Amino acid sequence: xxxxxxxxxxxAGAALAVLAGCTGGSPHRDxxxxxxxxxxxAEPQQRAVHALPGMPPVLDPKDVYAADRPGLLSPAVKDVxxxxxxxxxxxxxxxxxxxxxxxxxxxxxxxxxxxxxxPSWDLKTLWVNNDxxxxxxxxxxxxxxxGTPVAVHDPYNLYFTPDGRHAVVMASKDRQLxxxxxxxxxxxxxxxxxxxxxNHADFSLDGRYFIVSCEFSGELLKVxxxxxxxxxxxxxxxxxxxxxxxxxxxxxxxxxxxDMMANGLxxxxxxxxxxxxxxPTGKGAHGLYVSRDSREMYISNRxxxxxxxxxxxxxxxxxxxxxxxxxxxxxxxxxxDGRVLWLSGRYHSEVYAIDTRTGEQLARIKVxxxxxxxxxxxxxxxxxxxxxxxxx
Length: 392
Known about the structure:
- The chain is built from three helices and 29 strands.
- The protein is mainly beta.
- The strands form seven sheets. Strands 4, 5, 6, 7 and 8 form a five-stranded antiparallel beta sheet that branches.
- The longest helix is centred in the first third of the chain and has 14 residues, at 3-16.
- Pfam families: YNCE.
- Keywords: Signal.
- This is YNCE-like beta-propeller domain-containing protein.
């Protein structure tokens, strides 16, 4: 990004922005279980948030990630073995890694061009998004066995509404957001979009709306969850913008959007949906992952083989970790104990395990071709909002 353009973006931003699919089980019972774990001080705090009807109560209005602390595993994942699931887009397989030994222990054939491995809302199923295969392959995380694929057109990415009712398919080529029944995957409502390349999203603290990135037209959408309707659209103030992953801040006030062409983060107020400010991180900024204490966010810079560490409270970058021998860190997740950041190496047919305390590379593991939306499972949290593991 040219220095002059960065300066213009920073000045403009400063002036304008001062931001399950499940197999079996009862959705009502699952939502009831999710609302009860963990407990603590949920009762007095939940009244402060006018949440989406049917959504489990907000545990802490000041921290949307309060349920993601180490050890807070849901009863739904009791006895589920810890694994790292890696979709290989060029090999049409999912590599399964044992995080204790750093070894590939299984390779699962799936549909054509798997993009992401997505935990279902109730944490019982892992859905492999076979984009060009027009299907979702279910994997039972208890056994590691794949089930019968479900026909779903253009499933580039997959999310779940916070109330557990709907799956939201990011149909990138079809230019649609497709709301489906979270259990049967039957279409409930198809929402055409005017932008190109819908791919990533995250939900507001109250679950009433979510922000979507449009990769190929450099735009953002704001979608009303309950009405299943696009209520806002804006173009990012950079001519070659290519927005990627989206994450909400712990306090729910801001959304961060990685941009692999602007080489940094767009920061916007979700409620106002005003034009964003900008923070440079590194070449090819791509994936965003929050630490287990909600203090930091890890940003994978795919184009330069680095990971930036962002401090929420101070609104700045504090460290940059560089992978030895380079690499292409892409999508992934944080281990259940918060000590390891797992990222796929998109262009190097490998996976990286990184110590979150030191930035040291712990392992570099060979997998299939084009590894992409890697999922670490299980992770703490009461329910999943989708993607590679966005938990609440």
